[in-house]
Amino acid sequence: MTSLFDSHRLGALRLPNRVVMAPMSRARATADGMPTASQATYYAQRATAGLIVSEGVQPSLQGQSNPYTPGLHSAAQAAAWLPVTDAVHANGGRIFAQLMHGGRVGHPEVAGYVPVAPSAVRLDAELFTGPRGLLPAPEPRALSTREAAGEARVFGDAARYAVDAGFDGVELHGANGYLIQQFLSSNVNRRTDAYGGSVTGRIRFAVEAAEAAVDAVGADRVGIRLSPGGRVWDTAEDDVPELYAALLDALAGLGLAYVHVLVATDEDLLLALRKAWPHTFIANPGGQIGPKPTTRADAEHWLGQGADLVSFGRAYLANPDLVERLRTGAPLSEADRDTWYQGGDTGYLDYPAYVHRPAAA
Predict the structure, then answer these.
(1) Can you tell me the distance from the alpha carbon of 37 to that of 53, in angstroms, rounded to the nearest whole number?
(2) H helices within 185-313, ranges in order?
(3) Which whole-number Å values give the CA distances from 117 to 105, 178, 188, 196, 205, in the listed order?
(4) CATH annotation of 8-339
(5) Which residues of 55-68 are buried (b: 16+ CB within 10 A; e: fewer)?
(6) With 80 as the cut, is the pLDDT of residue 60 above it?
């Protein structure tokens, strides 16, 4: 049976193990979207992962969802990322940038723009906006047909900046209720043009975003994260098996490096998608945001079901040496939830590697 500690070929990269650090927002960038020296240290500490996928990075200012998140929509931001990617590579790691467009999960207090979405359907939730705290989500502005095509292209622009910044590739965030999944959704996407209605219409934005990234940096540097049937940020999807079978078929034709799938629905459906996908398949057993972090047993189960790689999210917060802990069976530390998004280095850089103490004679 395949082991978590076997190597794997991903495009031009040889991954030394099959452990992926999943993308997790940490809100440690500057107010204008610049990564910091602390972020370089944070990712370098975790460089023993087979692959790191960064926190969500906005591909445009319009796409920013949360305050203090980093961007990749200017040359200055790309330059600011170089110390981060250099630090990861110096420690022997590999890192993809996750490109995350918030769509309707955004607020003018954060980005200075009314958020855009497939349709003008307001999210019934409060969003953290920074100094003003939690505020109700505003009604988004529906993109015109022409604007939708342009919004897909920003993923290509950001992919170019990512490669300029030293990233090994990019992952499009098509999960968890953000813009790409909003187009896949049947309750947020109420369009009647080429970007809505039928399954073909609802997958079009995701496919065009992937095409833009592939055209910019090459298919072997592009992956996508999906959450079939996921309901984060009040999304709902009709015809989930048909929808995702069609989407994966279209993406496979582009030759994407991987799909990264959250276990958010029936396992039989995910196994069918695994069988239909001809390239690297990453499983995230943690699924939708919840109380249970991924364990080694979860990972081994999904490797046994045909996944090539397995991603760990929360386990990486307090265990920078997670690969070694999994290898040796060392206990996992628990992260302080109060420090997840508070900023600063506490609860970010101060989790130590496990020290193996020999038994007393």
Answers:
(1) 18
(2) 199-217, 240-254, 267-276, 296-304
(3) 9, 9, 8, 12, 11
(4) 3.20.20.70
(5) bbbbbbbbbbbbbb
(6) yes
Grouping H, G, I as helix, E, B as strand and the rest as coil, residue 270 is: helix
217-221 contact pairs (CB < 8 A, 24+): 217/159, 217/160, 217/162, 217/163, 217/169, 217/170, 219/254, 219/255, 219/256, 219/257, 220/10, 220/11, 220/12, 220/169, 220/255, 220/257, 221/11, 221/96, 221/159, 221/163, 221/168, 221/169, 221/170, 221/257
Q: Give the closest residue to 43 by CA, choosing from 54, 35, 34.
A: 54
In tens, the pLDDT along 122-156 reads: 999 999 998 888 999 999 999 999 999 999 999 99
- What are the residues facing 170 on neighbouring strands? 97, 222
**Which sequence positions are flagged as catalytic?**
178
Structure tokens at 106: 């955004």
Helix axes 240-254, 267-276, angle to 10 degrees: 20
Q: pLDDT for 241-276, tens place per residue?
A: 999 999 999 999 999 999 999 998 889 999 999 999
Predicted TM-score of the model (pTM): 0.96
Q: What would the pLDDT profile of 272-321 be if each residue is shown by its tens digit? A: 999 999 999 999 997 666 556 788 999 999 999 999 999 999 999 999 99
Run of H or E including 280: strand 280-284
